Predict the 3D structure of the following.
Amino acid sequence: MSTEGIECLSIVVRVPNLLFNNTTWDEKTINILRQRVINSICKIKGLEDIEEKIVYESYLTPKDLEEKFNSYGGAGFGLSHTLTQTNYFRPHIKSPTVENLYFVGSSVHRGTGASIVLLGSKLVTEEVIKDTKNR
């Protein structure tokens, strides 16, 4: 992703999705949030001068997630962690209404986390293979 001697850093900041109408995702908002992040990073030993060394920056806001990826409400982290959206209550990996439609990711039952998403991928694969053999 970068040339030799150059580091690549990705920073993910949890922010409200578009269903919370109190945030306008414009350049002003992005710049305010960017400066808060830079101020925090500059407090880390060895990264005090990070802003001067930035070669390239890009941002992905909830507005971008909704427009570019059709993410409902611009949510970047899937379903909320409310009682009715956790554990068994999450959508299951196989659609109950559409034949041959399967789901994988942090918003389906078994839940969030990289290891769980990978396990979910394995379970979906097993389900597809099982259904394919039954034809």
About this structure: The chain has two domains: 1-74, 83-133. Residues 114-133 form the longest helix (20 residues). Residues 83-133 form one domain.
